[in-house]
Amino acid sequence: MKTVLYKSSFWISLGVGVVFLSAVVQDAVASSDAAAVARGAALYADNCAACHGTNLEGQANWEEPEADGTLRAPPHDVSGHTWHHPDRLLFGYIKDGGKKALKEMGVDDVKSGMPAFGDVLADRDIQDILAFIKSNWPEQSIDYQKRMTAQDDVK
Predict the structure, then answer these.
(1) pLDDT digits over 14-32, tens only?
(2) How do residues 41-61 score in pLDDT, each as one tens digit?
(3) Residue 23 belongs to what H/E stretch?
(4) pTM metric for this prediction
(5) 114/123 Cα distance (integer angstroms)
(6) Which residue spans within the chain are E strands per DSSP?
(7) What domains are defined for the chain?
(8) What's the Cα-to-Cα distance from 103 to each of 60, 70, 89, 97, 150, rounded to whole Å?
(9) Are 77 and 55 in contact (CB under 8 A)?
(10) What is the DSSP letter of 81?
């Protein structure tokens, strides 16, 4: 009976330890996500807000090109189309700029005003900016964008 009691105590202690460790890991992940969003907010303010707006609202009349055909900066809130695109495309658009990103997609008849930030921002910075942008979307948009990313990852 003593052996069974010790074994039971061991498994209960192990189970409690696993639950505790799992909670600590989840808190750490949540904290790192919050930290990424905070870093992304600061980076967005410094590098993106001048064109895309301090509240992610984009330029006025963003759906209409400039007189020379250049696209205006779209909003990154739910009123725009950022959440329609997979992570790979969003990351590449920021890192390589609109011209290269569009060319890689086979789009020749659109003139993007988006500059490349690959020489200014580290990959982690770009990921943090995207985390900040996504943190402002409603759950439905987040879920849709995750599906787009998952479908893109399969290709």
Answers:
(1) 444 433 333 332 333 333 5
(2) 999 999 999 999 999 999 999
(3) helix 2-47
(4) 0.78
(5) 17
(6) 70-71, 111-112
(7) 2-154 (1.10.760.10)
(8) 26, 15, 12, 10, 22
(9) yes
(10) S
